[in-house]
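Folding Problem: From Residues to Backbone Shape
Fields: amino acid sequence; protein backbone structure tokens
RECORD BEGINS BELOW THIS LINE
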Amino acid sequence: MNKLSACIAEAIGTFALIFIGIGAIRANPGLLGVALAHGLTIAVFVSATGHISGGHLNPAVTIGFWVTKRLSTLQSLLYWVAQLLGAAAAAYLIVAIIPESVWRPAGLGTPDLAADFTRLHGMALEALTTFLLVFVFFATTADAKGAFNKIAGFAIGLTVTMDILFAGPFTGAAMNPARAFGPALVGRHWANHGIYWVGPLFGGVLAGVIYDRLYLRDQPPA
């Protein structure tokens, strides 16, 4: 599969995640509804794009594959650009469809910290939840010995759902810099934005390195 096709798949999948995620938040179905909206979208689009691009849909997943040399630097950068463009496009479309009086009060669904949650705690929680996500991603997509690689999307979607159920009330549980970037760009809500890059990217690197060193030592990068 060529680089352009892979990048388009990454952009479309990330677009879907942010579009459905923001829409669910504004529909206000409660924490479980928001968690399921994100988890189901990830499950569907990781499954749909996995054979094209790997179905990363998240710079934190991509950096995990880059640091373990399972993705080239150029391809990783192209994935990042595609993911961020997809996220921005989704946020702009939401603004074009939904009245400002509906999306503005919640900052277009931009993740932010709970009132009594510090930035350090926010980065730690985002790092930990992203670690779990990327660990599961490696276990179900990168590990040829994994028993469940055919249902990777389902496992990854469930991980996103459970992470949001726990961390959502504290940080918004982005676990994905693109998920934070799209609505922040369009809604101009940049409060604590760095947390949603530092935490997830650190968690992604840590999960990738640990899984690669412990369980993929006899499986060279494809």
